[in-house]
Amino acid sequence: MPVEPLGRRERKNAQTRRALAEAAQRLFLEKGYDQVSVKQIADAVDISSPTVFKHVPDGKEALMFDDGAERRESLLSAVYERPAGMSVMAALREFMAGRGPFVADPTPEVRKLTELIVNTPALRDYSRKLWIRCEQPLAEAIATELGRDPHDLTARALARYILEIPQFLSDEPDPRAALHTVFDLLEHGLHGTP
């Protein structure tokens, strides 16, 4: 049965990827991102450095994140599966308020991971890259929900502004308050759009 070995291989790859992510996260938190090499991460999982790049071709910063699929799907679900009567902007505000530096009462683990990402340029830049990959699908979702053309400039601009929020506001003394300030501005502008 050719399907069975493929399934095993996929499971083994997923286990290795998970082990790499856990080892990287532990080492980054212990030593700091810049003090950890790919070799150290590989050694912690008992694989070779080239094998790390087979599992994570984008480099060690990618070990802190999934491939962006969860982020994109969650973002689109926030728009498409929002409660009846909730505006698109309110749904996106609520979604962002539950992420990274905007979480109201993060656990100590979430706080440490968020600080690591926000304070490490390579991780912060990679996170931004994952957010920006969501721009087109988010713009299309916003346009659809507003009854506009899928390539509507307003929807595209709104998607870009929203996806830049994590990068733009994470250095603020109170990122959550800053998030609400920006969404208040975006919602006011949205209501003024014909």
Automatic annotation (TrEMBL):
- Give the UniProt keywords, A-Z: DNA-binding, Transcription, Transcription regulation
Q: Is-annotated flag, keyword Transferase?
A: no
Matches recorded under PROSITE patterns: HTH_TETR_2 (PS50977)
InterPro entries found in the cross-reference section:
Homeodomain-like_sf, HTH-type_TetR-like_transc_reg, HTH_TetR, MftR_C
Q: Which Pfam families match?
A: TetR_C_14, TetR_N
Q: Which domain of life is it from?
A: Bacteria
Name-wise, this protein is TetR/AcrR family transcriptional regulator
